[in-house]
Write a structure and sequence with these properties.
The protein contains four helices and six strands. The chain has a single domain, classed as Alpha-Beta Complex (Aspartate Aminotransferase, domain 1). Helix content is 36%, strand content 24%. With 123 residues, the chain is α+β, with helices and mostly antiparallel strands.
Length: 123
């Protein structure tokens, strides 16, 4: 999966938008001002960091050791809630699923009212 495909997939989520608050990289995908994905699109450092729950994060780090690691850029207290995925030879269907989980994790952090507002917006 290339960077353009990841971008298109992330932006296909209700209310998702792209921003670059830290400079050229990472390219961040947000929902209601909360980041769910951070893409590093350069070939020499091709990876994505995704929001997750602590349990989901542990699960993926066990299944894909070395390919999925704690969010490298985060302070230690936040690391269990972010996974960095090195994208070279990573299964595409699994990555789609992990992006879905990241989006849902952020969506579910909002009140039910805000969730309804987000989901009622046109794509």
């Amino acid at each position: 999966m290339n960077a353009e495909e990841i971008k298109k997939y992330c932006l296909g989520k209700h209310g998702a938008y792209e921003t670059q608050p830290f400079g050229d990289v990472p390219i961040c995908y947000k929902l209601n001002n909360k980041i769910f994905a951070q893409l590093y699109p350069y070939e020499h450092d091709y990876k994505i960091t995704l929001k997750c729950t602590a349990d989901v994060g542990d699960f993926y780090r066990m299944i894909y050791p070395g390919k999925v690691v704690r969010g490298y850029h985060c302070p230690p207290v936040q690391q269990p809630y972010w996974n960095t995925i090195y994208l070279a030879d990573f299964p595409e269907d699994e990555l789609y699923h992990m992006i879905d989980l990241a989006y849902d994790t952020v969506l579910n952090s909002f009140s039910k009212k805000v969730q309804r507002e987000i989901l009622s917006r046109e794509k």
